[in-house]
């Protein structure tokens, strides 16, 4: 999503080095090279997220480097979620077989499998109270192409966000976005059976936007503050570009635009709260953005869930028998798993 030059370190490494500097025992250059230290008046070339995501420790002979400090070296949960999503798809394809391309162009199982495995299905959520379907769609994908596109973004951009924020913050944003994604989809597209993790991924983008806004009150007194500011500024541009592209694709048939939009909004709300709390100093902006985040979160989920359970959501009763539902569209369709399908998001 972003590119340029730079290196990263996790916070423990950086803290250890700062301590060793105080004792006059520094063995590595963590912040600037000898060249940069001898010429403080030069305009620094700050590192950015893409290269920071690729490089490890600084070599001692490196001429000039700026470092972006992140909280952890690996995006552990991003990797684990991606592995789980891949395993689920493989198991589905083994159990249900690979459907012909005229039935599933995503190279995946017969579509009747998805509803029973936990896809977003308004009938079962509203009538049967199967609330877990707000979360389970993020583990399901229509096929190899659908999975690959989502996992790529999740591992490239999502994993770096996890390393910046820490796994706990990342998980909160991811799950809140998943719920917000499915909830808005139930309200806006009740006749669609939907699967995919891109609603949650869109939530990560929304949270990054919230972080940039919430941290605008922080000062840039140290070199690391400047590096972080430059990285966030570049990330913000990349996020806006990615969100625009995804939302444009959302209006292609069989893509759940409501899930994308719902995830983006829910992620922004959650991110505003989390990053307002995480601001370094207690300033007026901190409490202001915290209040904004809480207000937006309450309004979003109250409005969506009130609409959802008000009895005004109309959906096709045929979705209770998903196997029969898909037989309407394919003359030679066989319900190999006796299950159900959906749109991709």
Automatic annotation (TrEMBL):
Keyword Transmembrane helix tagged: yes
Biased composition (Basic and acidic residues): 24-38
One MF term in the entry's GO annotations: serine-type endopeptidase activity
Residue ranges occupied by any Peptidase S54 rhomboid domain in the UniProt entry: 129-275
UniProt record, GO biological process: proteolysis
InterPro entries: Peptidase_S54_rhomboid-like, Peptidase_S54_rhomboid_dom
Membrane topology term: Multi-pass membrane protein
EC number: 3.4.21.105
Reported function: Serine protease involved in intramembrane proteolysis.
Protein name as catalogued: rhomboid protease
Provenance organism: Nitzschia inconspicua
């Amino acid at each position: 999503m972003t590119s340029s030059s730079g290196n990263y370190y996790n916070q423990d490494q950086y803290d250890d080095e700062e301590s060793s500097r105080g004792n006059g025992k520094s063995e590595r250059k963590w912040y600037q090279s000898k060249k940069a230290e001898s010429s403080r008046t030069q305009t620094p070339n700050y590192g950015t997220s893409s290269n920071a995501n690729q490089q490890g420790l600084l070599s001692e002979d490196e001429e000039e480097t700026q470092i972006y400090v992140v909280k952890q070296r690996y995006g552990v949960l991003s990797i684990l979620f991606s592995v789980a999503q891949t395993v689920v798809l493989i198991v589905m394809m083994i159990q249900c077989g690979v459907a012909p391309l005229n039935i599933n162009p995503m190279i995946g199982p017969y579509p009747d499998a998805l509803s029973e495995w936990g896809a977003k299905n308004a009938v079962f959520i509203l009538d049967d109270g199967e609330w877990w379907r707000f979360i389970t769609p993020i583990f399901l994908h229509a096929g190899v192409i659908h999975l690959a596109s989502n996992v790529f973004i999740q591992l490239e951009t999502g994993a770096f966000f996890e390393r910046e924020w820490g796994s706990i913050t990342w998980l909160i944003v991811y799950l809140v976005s998943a719920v917000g994604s499915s909830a808005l989809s139930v309200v806006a597209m009740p006749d669609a059976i939907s699967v995919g993790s891109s609603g949650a991924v869109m939530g990560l983008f929304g949270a990054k936007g919230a972080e940039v806004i919430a941290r605008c009150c922080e000062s840039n007194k140290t070199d690391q503050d400047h590096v972080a500011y430059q990285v966030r500024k570049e990330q913000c541009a990349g996020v806006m570009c990615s969100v625009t592209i995804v939302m444009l694709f959302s209006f292609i048939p069989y893509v759940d635009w409501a899930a994308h939009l719902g995830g983006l909004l829910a992620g922004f709300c959650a991110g505003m709260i989390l990053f307002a709390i995480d601001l370094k100093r207690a300033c007026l902006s901190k409490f202001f953005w915290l209040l904004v985040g809480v207000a937006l979160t309450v309004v979003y989920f109250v409005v969506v869930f009130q609409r959802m359970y008000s009895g005004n959501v109309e959906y096709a009763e045929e979705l209770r028998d998903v196997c029969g539902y898909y037989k309407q569209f394919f003359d030679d369709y066989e319900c190999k798993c006796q299950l159900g399908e959906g749109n991709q998001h």
